[in-house]
Automatic annotation (TrEMBL):
Name under which the protein is recorded: Exodeoxyribonuclease III
InterPro entries listed in its UniProt record: AP_endonuc_1 (IPR004808), AP_endonuclease_F1_BS (IPR020847), Endo/exonu/phosph_ase_sf (IPR036691), Endo/exonuclease/phosphatase (IPR005135)
Enzyme class: hydrolase
Family: Belongs to the DNA repair enzymes AP/ExoA family.
Amino acid sequence: MKFISWNVNGLRAVLKKDFLTTFENFDADFVCLQETKMQAGQVELDLPGYQQYFNYAERKGYSGTAIFARTKPLKVTYGLGLPEHDQEGRVITLEYPNFYLLTCYTPNSQAELKRLPYRLEWDQAFRHYVSELAQQKSVIFCGDLNVAHEAIDLKNPQNNHHNAGFSDEERQSFSQLMAAGFVDTFRYFYPDQTDVYSWWSYRFHARDRNAGWRIDYFMTTPDLNDQLTDAKILTDIVGSDHCPIELDTADLMKKVD
């Protein structure tokens, strides 16, 4: 099975950059999007063979997530079930017989870390949510988690030590997420890989110089380790300041003995 995650930085914008052709070329079982920046009714997508699920932010042109799935889920849940965290359209959960799949767009701590306290509250609530799901069945969650976990995950760690996405507090929070029982699938396959990133600033020709950050992830529960076959960062695909990432697995729809 193939899973794709992509922060498109505006679905309407990326549609003007040949998104539908890219989507078709993915030939994926699931495509999870973040930062769709749209409201209901603003886009009608013709995606034959796919179920479409959207979670919209109350604020127009902001945040938002989507999942396109070849297989209809047993259940769809929007948000975390917490009003204080469910105004920005940041999470969708699909339930299948053998696993849960989530797309997540984690809040950015913003300049001078002015939203860091809220970000850490979000992290705790999200960690609790996925941990509860993991007590029931396997979990796969993906998205722009807005943190580079280790120095290996960004080009200039020294210069960004106290910036949003690489603060000590955010990195420690990500460590707590892993300690709660979730695997960073890219590092599972490529623990020492350097200079592979998923986001580049639009400034200073950062993408041309590959001065990027790895802040997009597929995370899974450890019981799926022997079902994982590869994790990829699709750096050649353009259209956003993020590139898509991919997780390949065995057929998780098959009945587990």
